Amino acid sequence: MPVTVQTPVEKWNGAVREVTLGATKADGGTRGRTVTVGGSATLPFLHFEGAIPNRPVIAIQVQDIDPLDWSPTLRSAWGDVTKDVLKWAAKAVDLGADIIALNLRSAHPDSGNRGPEEIAETVKSVLGAVDLPLIIYGPGVPEKDNEVLVRAAEVAAGERVAIGLCEQNNYRTIVAACLANGHVAIARAPIDVNIQKQINILMSDMGLPLDRILMDPTTGALGYGLEYSFSVMERLRLSALQGDGMTQMPTICTIGDEAWRAKEAKVSQGVPEVWGDFAKRGVVWETITATTLLNAGADILVLRHPQAVENVRKAIDQLIA
Amino acid sequence: MALSGLEIYKLLPKTNCKECGQPTCLAFAMKLAAKGAELSACPHVSEESKAALESAGAPPIRLVAIGSGDQKFEVGNETVMYRHEKTFYHQPGILVRVKDTQAADAVVVTVQQVQNYSVERVGINITLNGIAVENASGNAQTFAKCVELVRSKTDMPLVLMSQDPAAMEAALAAAGDSQPLIYSATAENWEAMAGLAKKFKAPLAVYAADGLGGLANLTDQITKAGVADLVLDPSAANVNSTLASLVQVRRHALRKNFRPLGYPVITFPSRLASTTEEETVIAAQHIARYSGVVVLDNFDPTLIYPLLTLRQNIYTDPQKPIQVKPDIYTFGDPGDKSPLLITTNFSLTYFTVAGEIEASGIPTWLLIADSEGMSVLTAWAAGKFDAEKIAKTVKTSGIADKIGHRKLVLPGFVAGMSGEVEEELPGWKIAVGPREAVDISPYLKGVWSPD
Question: Is B259 helix (H, G, I), strand (E, B) or coil?
């Protein structure tokens, strides 16, 4: 008697919500195209079980001030364009970015402290130079974030950009700016399912529709807490599939920020020989951090290195095929 | 699945003969359920009941040992789909493949590289697990010679790769009693391979070209032929169907207790890859998704190190993050004017900070607070690394007797509570250190002063 094997499918009551970034002329914006993420009705890449309407996408990170503190591996890969955010963004488009992630680092008190009017000009010119959907990150200092992101949201009105970061103790101003100007807000929680859900609820309580929230459960890099992010993302995805509307937002991971802070990616001298070739190590670090979290449910990966972009795109191709 | 006491009772003779030492069969059943007795204590249990009880008591994924001696590794016996549900227990063996068509010195170089590769992370040495030898020549003697050569250089576990039973037998003889994994039994050769597995007491990997149905039928036949230690190769045509197979095998075993697929799995990422970098990316996915034995085609430290790191991450028990003992730690020979830093007892935090202090060459005191194994920000958010805890750590540690100054450096991430700490620690100055460990060296060299 031959053994019979049936495909073990699990029944889910929910799905990840779809969120669209960017608005074309028809929708009141000027983007050449839009990007829709989320929508999965199963665990990552289990095509035998449920619909996966949208593939995960790659946002390439650019900065409005030359990142002198970045790893030499990154700086040599990008070359001179890091001095000019418009050229940098254009090159990111050429490399096949789905989204441009613009970091307004120049507004940070330690690196320029630019004010909202200067920032507004930067945002306008990036919007003019590239026609992909944008993510706009503030400098990460709450007072400055609120000041410059409000102006950024105003000058980008109607473009449906994603704006971050909203955190539990600083979200109202950014959510209000997104509400007023038709944008998507990014909710960041510190690798904690309950806090993530809480911030999602607080933001939606302000009237922000659920299809205008992305969640960022905080990325731990390979070797630096990756397993925490992996498990929190798996729990959030399971909760979404089980029907909890407050965990059904698509997930965004700031891979580049975290992977390139790892000592392995930053330090070339005085480290064990068994770590291998420094020129390649950072790229592998970023790639493996990204593909591991892709398998835990990431919908948008924010990356830095052109080679990592290519590696991760290939991995997505293989997983979505 | 474990049976309840009542379910076990139904399979017992129900004669209350007391020969097992218990007053009744029900009492014996309850003891069995609680693992407080052995079934062999009952002289009257039927063979059918014995078989039913033994199979019910077996783990849903069999534990299989590969290799012998100190370096053998065990895989299987996993109990959950997601590591947050409990933990993953037996980390996958990561091996590198050589071919019997390679020149002998090339084989030796690879074997020695694999054998010697060791890297320390968070205080633990992590290593590769063995060598796979492939019979690429198709010649039995060449294969056996290559296995003999490898065996002469290492005691690490081996995977022997050939579908020709004659070649496999020659290689197994060359491998001695080192219990290599035989790769593989297929629909065509399984009877001969099962015979070899029995003869050499070696575990047997099983591959079926026609998917999980074919695989289950094969393992069913092979177990009936008397081989119990199996490993499955569920690989499919591409990355995404292989992922589906890996998930389905695990679900069959854990969710349905389906015995024919209740075994650890082996994967060969290079079969799905066109470059070494791609192989690494696919291997990483297999490590996170249930593979028990990962065979790589290439040895490159730059690519091995992240894979070993990932394995350590994924197989860390989420309930028990690796911790270090709360205490005073010294670097160099610190004196009464040396800097005093404080951080949490999450091992990754400790080893990262310790590494940077060592690299700075500045003699330093490092105070470790008991944050229950949480990192600085997580512990702070959870109230395990607040002003009160820091003050208590300083006061109970006895550090005040060892230093002349009264200045404590907090991690930059908790700069916001320096005022509170000052209130809790009258007479102390609280300084704010860097947020990232990587900036500790410049801080100690350029910023810190005891005044």
Answer: helix
* ipTM score above 0.95: yes
For the entire predicted model, the pTM comes to: 0.88
d(CA B185, CA B174): 19
Q: What single-letter amino acid sits at A68?
A: L
List chain B residues with CB under 8 Å of A288. 280-281, 284, 306-307, 310
- Cβ(B161)–Cβ(B185) under 8 Å? no
CA-nearest residue to A290 within chain B is B281
Distance from CA of A292 to the nearest CA of B (A): 6
Let me know: does B344 contact B385? Beta carbons within 8 Å: yes
Query: Among partner residues B84, B247, B359, which is closest to A46 by beta-carbon distance?
Result: B247
Q: What totals of helices (H) and strands (E) does chain B contain, helices first?
A: 16, 17
For the sheet with B407-410, list strands across it.
B328-331, B364-369, B340-344, B407-410, B429-432
* Residue contact A227–B314, C-beta within 8 A: yes
From chain A residues 253-282, the ones with a CB under 8 A of any chain B CB are 261, 263-264, 266-267, 270, 272-277, 280-281
Which alpha helices (DSSP H) does B91-204 contain, by range? Answer: 104-116, 140-153, 165-174, 190-200
* The pair of three-digit structure tokens given for residue B111, joined into one six-digit string: 């074997």
Instruction: Inform me whether the pLDDT recorded for B409 exceeds 60.
Output: yes
Residue-wise pLDDT tens digits, B288-307: 999 999 999 999 999 999 99
- Give the closest residue to A134 by CA, choosing from A173, A181, A176, A169: A181
Partner-chain contact A291 B281, CB within 8 Å: yes
Distance from CA of B31 to the nearest CA of A (A): 34
User: What residues of A are in contact with residue B312 (Cβ under 8 Å)?
Assistant: 223
Interchain contact, B216 vs A5, CB within 8 Å:
yes
* DSSP string across B36-71: -S-GGG-TT--HHHHHHHHHHHS-SS--EEES-STT
Domains belonging to chain A, first-starting first, are 18-320 (3.20.20.20)
B381 touching chain A per CB within 8 A: yes
**Least reliable range by pLDDT among A250-259, B41-50, B186-195:** B41-50
Which H/E stretch holds residue B344? strand B340-344
3-state helix, strand, coil in chain B (%, to 5): 45, 15, 40
* B108, amino acid identity: V
Alpha-carbon distance values, A122 to A137, A139, A142, A166 (Å): 13, 14, 20, 21
pLDDT of residue B5: 85
Of B119, B252, B281, nearest to A288 by CB-CB distance is B281
* Whole-angstrom distance, CA of residue B416 vs CA of residue A170: 15
Element at B218 (helix H, strand E) = helix B211-224
Taking the alpha carbons at both ends of chain A, their separation in whole angstroms is: 35
Q: Which domains does chain B have, with CATH numbers?
A: 5-57 (1.10.15.40), 64-314 (3.20.20.20), 328-446 (3.40.50.11600)
C-alpha of B31 from chain center: 32
- Residue A223 region by backbone torsions, left for phi larger than 0, else alpha for psi between -120 and 50, else beta: left
